[in-house]
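[09:14] KT: can someone run the structure on this one? pasting the chain below
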Amino acid sequence: MDNRNIESYSGSRNAFSCNSCKTGSGAFCRCSNVVVYYDNHTRQQLHHFLEFVNHSPTGFEWGYSGSGPSQLAFAMLMDFTHDKELALDLYQQFKIDFISQICDDQWEIKSIKIREWIGRFYSLKE
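[09:31] RB: done, structure tokens below
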């Protein structure tokens, strides 16, 4: 796993009239956006990895233990580790320990916290 250049994951959620989500053009929704930040100051949208786990095709969520938080937990671990088996083994616990605990519409989880948390279960290879 080569995650050394990932600095953090950051999420934001706003209620507004949206033209891009699956609720339909112009419908009121709460769009959730999750971005991966790299140590070279670049960023990209977090991939949903629906091809491996499909809990929530309409997007990510946090702050509870439902399908959107499950999708976010899996996507973050899959992105961070590039290891499908590890992500499948740990994402429900990651959801409980991290994702369901987020109470704010904007948040950040540093990569060192994820690495330390995974290290409780697996020895990570550099």
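[09:33] KT: thanks! The beta strands are 6-18, 27-38, 43-45, 106-110.
[09:34] RB: yep, looked fine to me
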